[in-house]
Amino acid sequence: MTTTTFPPVAPAAVSEFERSALFADLKNSAYEHLLSRIEELGAEFGRWSQAAIAQFVTLELDSYIRLHAVPVNEAEAQLVAHALTRELTGLGPLQPLLEDPRVEDILINGSEVVYVSRGGVLQREPSHFKDDEHVLRIVRRILAPLGRRLDESSPMVDARLPEGGRINVIIAPLAIDGPSVSIRKFRKDPLTPKELVRLGTFNEDICRILEMAVQARCNILVSGGTSSGKTSLLNALAHFIPSSERIVTIEDTAELSLNHTHVVRLESRPGSFDGSGHVSIRDLLINSLRMRPDRIIVGEVRSGEVLELLQAMNTGHDGSMGTIHASSPRECLYRAEMLAGFAGFQGSEVSLRRQIANAVDFIVQIGRLSNGRRRLLSLTEVTGMTDNVISMQELYRYEPQIGADGQEIDNWTSMGISPHSPKLLSWWRAQQQTGGMR
């Protein structure tokens, strides 16, 4: 089998043609032609390699263009051939987005609407699917190796991608305007604390405090909104854990990728269509206490597992960490209290707050700004109880300044307060004596 060689195309021309109606029409009509040819080939097609399929697509497309006198040049035909090959061997319009390292999130709202997040900013993509069945065909190709079911009896799926990432799908009758697909991509090499400092997530002074807090086995909650960078920050904090310690991570969908020598990764399991076989984060957390962990890291605290995590922090598992959805450090404590109440905490409100105050040492608030940048907004220490209310003190606060050109300049203001925790007190005093902190 031979193939036609096409010359390279300038990026501007590529972008313009791929957005054109001619590109979409030719790809769709040629795709139907290819499906007819594949039906004729039958089982033989299933044994072909990806290279053989690419050659087949190029030859058939060349024949189709000549037969129907489609006004495209060779370079444009190559773009269509690549797109069709992705349809048959890869994931169609999703393939280039999944391969693009700048893409963080892919959001599909029906076959015609695709949004992509790059650098924390959402933008609509020109690529789209032929119809809703095309979306479902690609999604089922993703889910097939994962053993997950997607149909009317099970119209919602949340799964971890093999190459690292997470996919959530909702279809009819729950999704009214077509299949809704949300794909979150994860970095193959998680960000380190030094990289976060370089990217401006926080400054070096805060980095030193976080390093000492982790090494001194302080219990830390990372608080923030959706896509604010909680998991990336948690990954970075784990870099400070000594290599001699045993870590157990517990998540709904495994996102954490710790650069550590001794990690046990646990992932919850959804129930089958009749509800059997369900294993929750809370079940895993209870079991992890029997696994001799030095530290427990919960990917996201969102339900009754907050009770077990608080008990673990209070009973010899210092240095544990987790993330929680909340808009401020105070709201983080309120949410932990609310989740514990929903989980059936039997004690009084005061005893619950006392348990939270004794368990949590620091709350790290992170947020995504309007320009897409992710910044540590507050570093707050939990200091105990005062008049039946959990007391806190803020050590650092994000207060950007406006430069001469009108642009915001990152700035973190120190509140000039020393840590209350005895775990950090001796270190803080040594820093002040040597002038290491401002």
Automatic annotation (TrEMBL):
Classify the source by domain of life.
Bacteria
Name-wise, this protein is: Pilus assembly protein CpaF
Cross-referenced InterPro entries, in alphabetical order?
P-loop_NTPase (IPR027417), T2SS/T4SS_dom (IPR001482), T4SS_GSP_E_ATPase (IPR050921)
Q: Which family does it belong to?
A: Belongs to the GSP E family.
- A Pfam family name for this chain? T2SSE
From which organism does this entry originate? Comamonas odontotermitis
- Identify the residues that the record assigns to the Bacterial type II secretion system protein E domain, covering every copy: 88-366
